[in-house]
Design a protein that fits this description.
Layout: E1 3-10, E2 13-23, E3 25-28, E4 31-34, H1 39-44, E5 53-60, E6 64-70, E7 77-83, E8 85-92, E9 103-109, E10 115-118, E11 122-128, E12 132-139, E13 148-150
Antiparallel strand pairs: 1-2, 2-10, 3-4, 5-12, 6-11, 6-13, 7-10, 7-12, 8-9, 8-11
């Protein structure tokens, strides 16, 4: 198998379905080779997801994208960085999950080629730490502009520790990312399987 899968924990509790992924990299004097995705390997590792769309974004240092999710067409994602380094964050929005409302952060590094598998039912975002970053993500459903959802990146209820890696900063935000709603513990976002509840 060409990948190693590591479970993710927050406050000592396992976040069901969320995994750090470490691909096997072959390096020599010419450079390196790796399989960024192999369906058989991921299936053997217990991640049997059909991906239907690949996306790439390029961002400069200081850009913050997020926190995003899709409602009517929820997406599982396999995210990584080809060039640069980002502070990647997810928030569990699955009602009934032991980690509902909890966030998990992880450094994605273009040198290490590490990835994060994010199941349906999570909000996702990242902040660019390097001069630029080329970010990739495979998605299990197609982008639906009518189903865009989001949470405030700096919502105190979610409590993402941006300062742990960024310090005092003013992120570069898209206009839509300045206007997302705060997280609401009483709201039903997704069910435990990551399907939108719409309440």
């Amino acid at each position: 198998m060409q990948i190693e899968k590591k479970e993710c924990f927050v406050d000592g509790i396992k976040i069901e379905g969320l995994y750090e992924i470490y691909p096997k990299i072959r390096k020599d004097s010419r450079g390196y080779f790796m399989e960024s995705y192999n369906e058989a390997d991921f299936s053997q590792a217990g991640i049997a997801v059909k991906f239907v769309q690949d996306n790439i974004s390029k961002s400069v240092k200081g850009v913050l994208r997020g926190l995003h999710f899709q409602t009517h067409h929820p997406q599982a994602k396999l995210v990584g960085v080809i060039v640069g380094k980002v502070f990647d964050v997810v928030v569990d929005l699955r009602k009934g999950s032991k980690t509902f409302g909890k966030n998990y952060s992880y450094i994605l590094d273009g040198e290490e080629k590490n990835m994060l598998f994010v199941p349906e039912g999570f909000a996702h975002g990242f902040y660019v730490l390097s001069d630029e970053a080329i970010f990739t993500y495979k998605c299990s459903d197609f982008y639906d502009p009518q189903g865009e959802g989001g949470l405030m990146w700096n919502d105190k209820q979610i409590g993402i520790d941006w300062n742990s890696v960024i310090g005092d900063f003013n992120p570069i935000l898209a206009e839509k990312d300045k206007n997302h709603h705060a997280f609401d513990f009483s709201k039903d976002y997704f069910d435990i399987n990551g399907k939108w509840l719409g309440k």
